[in-house]
Amino acid sequence: METQTAKILDGKALSAKIQQSLSAQIQELQPKFGRPPGLAVLMVGDNPASAAYVRGKERACEKVGIASFGKHFPTQTSLAELEDTIAALNNDPQVDGILVQLPLPEHLDSVKLLNQIAPEKDVDGLHPVNMGRLVRSEEGLRSCTPAGVMRLLEEYQIPVQGKQAVVLGRSILVGKPLALMLLEANATVTVAHSRSHEIKSITQSADILIAAVGRNGLVTGEMLKPGAIVVDVGINRVVDASGKDRLIGDVHFESASKVAEYITPVPGGIGPMTVAMLLQNTVKSYLTRF
Ligand SMILES: NC(=O)c1ccc[n+]([C@@H]2O[C@H](COP(=O)([O-])OP(=O)(O)OC[C@H]3O[C@@H](n4cnc5c(N)ncnc54)[C@H](OP(=O)(O)O)[C@@H]3O)[C@@H](O)[C@H]2O)c1
Question: 120-139, pLDDT tens digit by residue?
Answer without folding.
Answer: 999 999 999 999 999 999 99
